[in-house]
């Protein structure tokens, strides 16, 4: 289910509409899909790589030494055993056994409201291609289309009641909230999942402890506002995955690469928590005057182009960058770097897709198609200098890292010049996770190789 954007209503009146049209991606939509289906697809992909996911296997504890990790496990039959590995990655959720065993502080606080969640079928006048958010005097109600006729409904249940866990709602209670806060004429039925929950906003300071790492909800939990939780966790895993693979193969410098995982992703986690928390607080205002002021101001700000652009980049997570990372280096002239910070592309940013024309064959392909897989990609382009020949740079990089870096020599097309600000001979190194690691203009082989040697071998 492709959602084109979101619409916010205040007491039944349309306040703001956010569309994802125009974002710098071939995927200008929110992909609404049940988490169970995402898990099925990922598990099928793993199976194709020869990996079996073992369900109902419990991690009891683990021990660390200089060479690896020994984990004690208990299987579904109750039999215990040990597994030895070079590394341990805790992707084990908000109640992470790995995090608890490490004694890491999960700093933060609980959001002061109870919430209800319902996966239900809904009949009535509700769009299938957008998120609908209703701000009501009694609280927020949100509809997320996740299958034809089926929606994930989330609603604020008011200040948290006593007890550790709110009770699960009945279908009749969900219908009552929808009747009170949503558009008229909706009927909810056939529930797949009904649950009460509370929101915690917590995060660890460091994602790495020697040979052990945390990723996803084990490292950070936050409000579902913005729908960024699962994507953020998968980005954690991919960021760590390519670095850990290089180190395990003996092709990466362990301390630089693996420490960069925590510094890069912890900063992203901080930003996601801030944004999700702010959206939740705005949506759950209780004081009538504050609600009235919010509903009056939101349409004004939402009509501003730069606000729309900022919201699109934030919610799509295209605004995530690693400009301060030790794995990011921009060696362009000062003017080019200053212009990039005013809205251009810099080292550490996500590499936007552009159509590429091969400088020799003339074949046209999107950049995204050229950088599929797990290699780095070095994009070379002459820019305005028709005399420049990229052979020396290409040969030096291929000679040093033939199995790690794919070299693409592109003709200076208008799209490439505009998006990547290519005017002189330029080299753009794109990491396996799609972020720019190095920007050289004019590109020099020795300087690029010196940068690569800081984290590759």
What does it look like?
The protein is an alpha+beta fold. Among the domains are: 2-28 and 108-201, 2-Layer Sandwich (D-Amino Acid Oxidase, Chain A, domain 2); 329-452, Glutaredoxin (3-Layer(aba) Sandwich). It contains twelve helices and 23 strands. It has helices at 35-48, 97-102, 171-181, 229-248, 254-283, 288-302, 305-315, 334-341, 367-370, 391-400, 414-420, 445-452, and strands at residues 2-3, 5-10, 13-19, 30-31, 58-64, 69-74, 80-85, 88-90, 107-123, 131-136, 139-147, 150-159, 187-203, 208-209, 212-214, 220-221, 329-332, 355-357, 364-366, 376-381, 405-410, 426-430, 436-441. It has an eight-stranded mixed sheet. It has a five-stranded mixed sheet with strand order 17-23-22-20-21, with helices on both faces. A three-stranded antiparallel sheet has the order 5-6-7. A hairpin with a 2-residue loop joins strand 14 and strand 15. Helix 4 (229-248) packs antiparallel against helix 5 (254-283). The protein is globular. The mean pLDDT is 94.
Break the fold down into its secondary structure elements and pairings:
Blueprint: E1 2-3, E2 5-10, E3 13-19, E4 30-31, H1 35-48, E5 58-64, E6 69-74, E7 80-85, E8 88-90, H2 97-102, E9 107-123, E10 131-136, E11 139-147, E12 150-159, H3 171-181, E13 187-203, E14 208-209, E15 212-214, E16 220-221, H4 229-248, H5 254-283, H6 288-302, H7 305-315, E17 329-332, H8 334-341, E18 355-357, E19 364-366, H9 367-370, E20 376-381, H10 391-400, E21 405-410, H11 414-420, E22 426-430, E23 436-441, H12 445-452
